[in-house]
Amino acid sequence: MENRSSRINDLLIHALNNLSQEEFKGFKDKLSHSDFEGKGTIPRGRLENADAIDTKNLLMAFYGGDAAVDVAIEVFNQISLREAAANLREERENGKKPKVPKKPGTLPKESALGQRQQEKKEKQTDNYRVKYREHIQNKYRVIKDLNSRLGENVTLNSRYTKLIIVKKHCHKKEREHEIMTLGWRHEEIMTKRTSFITLGNLFKCDEDGQTPQIVVLLGVAGIGKTMTARKIMFDWASGELYKEKFDYAFYINCREVNFGSEQGRIADLILKNCPNKNAPVEEILINPEKLLFIIDGFDELRFSLDQPEDSLCSDPCEKQPMEITLSSLVRKTVLLESYVIITTRPTALEKLRQCLECARYAEILGFSAAEREEYFHNFLGNEEKARKAFNFVKEHEMLFTLCFVPIACWIICTVLKQQMEAGEDLAQTSKTITGVYMLYLFSLLKGHSSNSKKHTPANLKGLCSLAADGIWRQKILFGEEEIKKHGLDISDSLFLNENMFQKDIDCECVYSFIHLSFQEFFATLFYVLEKEETTTVEGSETAMNNVKKLLENYGKSRNYLMLTVRFLFGLLNEERMEDMEKKLSCKISPKIKPELLEWEFSSFKRNAEMIYQLEEFHCLYEIQEESFVQSALNHFTELYLAEYNFTKMDQMALSFCLKNCCKLETLYLNLCTFGSEDPNEDSLRGAHFPLCLSVSCRLTNDHLTDACYRDLSSALSTKQTLTELDLSMNNLGDSGVRLLCEGLNHPTCKLQKLGLSNCHLTAVCGGDLSSLLSTKPTLMELDIGENNLGDSGVQQLCEGLKHPHSKLQKLRLMNCGLTAGSCGNLSSVLRAKPTLTELDLALNNLGEAGGMKLLCEGLKHPDCKLQKLRLMGCQLTAACCEDLSSVLSINHTLTELELRGSLLRDSGVQLLCEGLKHANCKLQKLGLKNFLLTDACCENLAAVLSISNSLTELELGIDYLRDSGVQLLCEGLKHPNCKLQKLGELKEETRTALKTIPVVEEICGQSRCKTGSENPLAKRESAHCYFYNLI
Questions:
Q1: pLDDT digits over 86-119, tens only?
Q2: Do residues 282 and 54 make contact, with C-beta atoms less than 8 angstroms apart?
Q3: Could you tell me the pTM of the whole model?
Q4: 307 near 355, Cβ under 8 Å?
Q5: Do residues 39 and 63 lie in contact, with contact meaning Cβ atoms separated by under 8 Å?
Q6: Burial (CB count within 10 angstroms: exposed 0-12, middle 13-18, buried 19+), residue 129
Q7: By three-state DSSP, how is residue 148 classified?
């Protein structure tokens, strides 16, 4: 289909070329004196020397399209050229090209000359269009970072990342959730919007078939409006955007307009974009429907575009005050058919709406999660560095949320890049959340006002007061009256966002901070800035400016003030206080820091010498001053944290504070997780584990990863003070043991106690543990119970235990899948290692194939000094008791023997009692609880009670005995030589039944009337079920 504009051009040039010189002269004269359609007259000076093509161009530029044809027809009629008027009208209505005489001889000389001139000018125009595109492409190909040095540029395409742009308004609740949420939840809410729009569809027809001529791109400060505008210019010039729609695109920077000349023309704005002043402006203006103007930063204009309608101009070449010129372009009194994109902050919308009758509005929300990652890769270039930096940010909830704002994303990338280039560890970064938010504050103020320092205190105080008032009342949306009450100029605030919501039959306009975290940041400034820098609004609930009050309320309800208090600590860092004064002329009160330290002391005193809350560490991490942190933590010796999912930020705060907790002796982390907060990741990422372990460290059931074990291994190789480490109930595995042993084997490591119970170990790790035992004389206790080591694993372990360097005293092998086959190896250890005093073999099947006989050979050896032996649930039978009885009659050191849950029966107990009655037996505690025992064994046990001088505790299981058995036991208990103090725990029904036995009542009566020194039964504690205090 023929281009409409081209056909109108042809119609006009043909009509004018058919005029004689006198007729053409009369046409121009009439045109210069006539005001058609109320648009004023074309200046006479511009028509005086114009040829047919120039005149046609002036008509098109001044009236545009069909209106230019209407004006030509009207002028023809006024100078009595009715046939020319009728021909022009007919050719337009028929939609045909004007007839051109077939024979050259019939063409007037003027017409032939005009056509050649037109063809020449059209060719020149086409050539210039190509040249202009190349110029724009070169101009917008590169960009400069805010901190770029001389000659440092980056290409736009290598940095630009797609932004989320939506064209529909959200509901009030949706906006509230978007403002308040953090991390992945925030990203999820942003991307839930269904009305996404791309740059290529900004001018696409709507549902009613209407194509907008003006598009307003909204976005808060730093969200990427200017970058988007530049991207449109570059992509148009590159032929990737609006290639067929626009012949020319012009960029108008409102900040430059402010500092430019006070008067100007549309033509001047066009020339400013051109490579030189020789641009064919008149030819460019011929087809206004092929022109795109991008007005960037409407909110920064120092003047209003709401000018009186009668002062607006219609001539693109007429010089007027810039407010008239721009207003005329936006309000379509000039270049009616052109297209316009306007970028602005939402707070300037009210001013803009006054100028626009009809426009499409679209909002830039920022980066999605995928686009944040793409930005990191674009910025850093290096794949590995980008992955490392993004993973670090992704697992840092506040930083990840902040990265939806492009300028904040740039700040964070810049800081991380500098750290990596300096070889620093990102996990040890000194850039706290407070530091990043301050950089964001400085960059926006620097980028949007050349004299920001002069006006900052006045603007900042109202903003801080508003923020604090909102935090105090848990409010995030503010009406216009509230804004004014705090002395704020809505249109001049960089940090507020305007929101329009439907309310009944009207619309309400409310304001918010871009995110709740920014509101909390400014609220904190309200409390720390000296009084002359803050404002107190009469009647405001936050007009207290009292840090103590803030901290008191934080202590009562931590949730909604948590981040505010973190910022409070962060802003009191000496370096940041200096930055605030130097860059913004705002002074932070130095009196607050002592108050803060005093509050820390009083806060921690509630928990004596143990810390239970992780949040205090986040606060201390923000201040980044070791002397302050050391003072705050000086009296703590223990840290207990349970059921925490430690993010990377948690780990950084924990590590920093532990380094400065100088007197810490015990670190206990139970049921904690170290890893990522990304719900889409299949496995936990490596945590940067706290490297400042003190004396005792318990990390039980904490879902630790290989990366944690590497960090632990590193800590063990450098930390001499760590003596206890418990990693029970972690998925350590054999590979984790190998990593851990690298640190444990280091000469610097002085570990004494190691707990690896229920850590998914197998026989494979036996060699590593054996090597550890043979090289680590400091290791005194080893718990590797609840692991499937098997006989082969224990065989390797025993080799290390027998090594001369091994000084192990306590070994726990409970439920390790052992059989009688392990007893020989364990027996050899007992014979060779007099240092071993405790051995736990519970829940292993040792009762077959003479296993106990072999074990007892070691127990009877003169060098065996074992004191405690646990054989609970080891499937021992009566046949084993003869060997155990022999041990009891020979071994002088054994004081505790646990045999509960075995298959001993009465005959086995009778054999055991022979050893218990021996004079050499020193046993103090005996566990025999067994449902297979009957009254038949009670007479033997009573004899033991009446003879033994050492037995003080007996776990028997009286619940399973009849009255006659209990009466027999009581005879032994009544004996003057009986030293028993504890007789196990009884069921309630057993207690009731015992009351009916006369001999029991007799014993209890004796106990009550004797002193504790005369009868051991009088010493029995209520926690144990002794006869005298149970009845």
A1: 888 888 877 654 544 433 434 454 555 556 666 6
A2: yes
A3: 0.62
A4: no
A5: yes
A6: middle
A7: coil
* 666 strand-pairing partners: 638, 696
Query: What is the rounded distance in angstroms from the CA atom of residue 417 to the CA atom of residue 370?
Result: 20
Cα distances (angstroms) measured from residue 42 to each of 33, 34, 50, 80, 503: 8, 8, 12, 21, 49
How far apart CA 347 and CA 62 sit, in angstroms, is 34
Per-residue model confidence (pLDDT) at position 899: 93
Residue holding tokens 């970058």? 227
**Of 440, 412, 443, which Cα lies nearest the Cα of 426?**
412
Is residue 121 within 8 Å of 283, Cβ to Cβ? yes
For the domain made up of 129-159+197-366, the CATH class stated in words is: alpha beta
Q: How far is CA 284 from CA 17, 201, 249, 886, 1005, in A?
A: 21, 24, 11, 114, 118
Residue position matching structure tokens 């949730």: 559
pLDDT band at 255 (very low <50, low <70, confident <90, very high): confident
CA distance 742 to 739: 6
Length of the chain: 1031
* Contacts (Cβ under 8 Å, ≥6 apart) of 877: 847, 902, 903, 904, 905, 908
| pLDDT tops 50 at residue 714 | yes
Residues carrying CATH 1.10.533.10, the chain: 1-94
What is the CATH topology of the domain spanning 1-94?
Answer: Death Domain, Fas (1.10.533)
Confirm if 706 and 697 have CB atoms less than 8 A apart: no
Strands (E), 617-752: 638-642, 645-646, 666-670, 673-674, 696-700, 724-726
Q: What angle do CA 77, 79, 80 make, to 5 degrees?
A: 60
* Cα 435-440-446 angle, rounded to 5 deg: 125
Q: Kindly state the tokens that stand for 558.
A: 């931590």
CATH 3.40.50.300 region(s) of the chain? 129-159+197-366
Measured between alpha carbons, how far is 624 from 223 in angstroms, rounded to an integer?
Answer: 30
Angle at 808 between CA 802 and CA 812, to 5 degrees: 100
